[in-house]
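To illustrate the input format used throughout this study, we show a single complete record. The first block contains the structure-token representation of the backbone; no residue identities are included at this stage. The design step must infer an amino acid for every position from geometry alone.
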């Protein structure tokens, strides 16, 4: 019974949240819906960029990884990670790509920052492969969207700041 109370206070309509597999979304409603004969309380999350709506049962919110936007200390850790030296392992690209995808889908800003840092290429370095570029852009987009909400700026401004940090 106490768990339900903590969920209710944890998520409110209008809050920005992070769903690991899709990134930053906004809670549009917390609604009750009758599904398969039982009434469930659902968190309705809209992802405007993808034009997608996700309905997550309140009881499953924690196990699906749904969480509030990171606080400034976690975001500062992610920015510190971006400033670090890229660590590219000497394993096959398919294995590295899988590791990068897992880090992105973990939803952790620090793990996503590691992917962005490791795949970042400045103008004077060699070109990236198509799949490398796709993973890099997905990670940068996820990190920039969460950073934008955290800092109350536009996603484009957040992307510029992140790229500025990477270029140093």
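Output of the design step:
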């Amino acid at each position: 019974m106490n768990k339900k109370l903590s969920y209710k206070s944890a998520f409110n309509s209008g809050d920005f949240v992070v769903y690991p597999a899709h990134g930053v979304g906004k809670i549009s409603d917390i609604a009750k819906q009758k599904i398969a004969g039982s009434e469930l309380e659902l968190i309705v999350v809209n992802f405007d960029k993808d034009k997608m709506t996700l309905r997550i049962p309140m009881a499953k919110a924690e196990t699906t990884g749904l969480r509030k936007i990171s606080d400034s200390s976690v975001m500062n850790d992610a920015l510190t990670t971006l400033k670090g030296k890229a660590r590219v392992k000497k394993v096959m690209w398919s294995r590295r790509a899988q590791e990068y995808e897992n880090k992105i889908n973990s939803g952790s800003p620090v793990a996503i920052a590691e992917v962005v840092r490791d795949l970042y290429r400045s103008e004077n370095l060699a070109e990236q492969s198509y799949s490398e570029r796709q993973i890099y852009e997905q990670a940068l987009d996820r990190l920039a969207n969460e950073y934008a909400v955290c800092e109350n700026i536009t996603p484009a401004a957040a992307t510029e700041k992140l790229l500025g940090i990477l270029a140093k």
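Structural context for interpreting the output: The longest helix spans residues 130-151. Confidence is low (pLDDT under 50) at residues 1-8.
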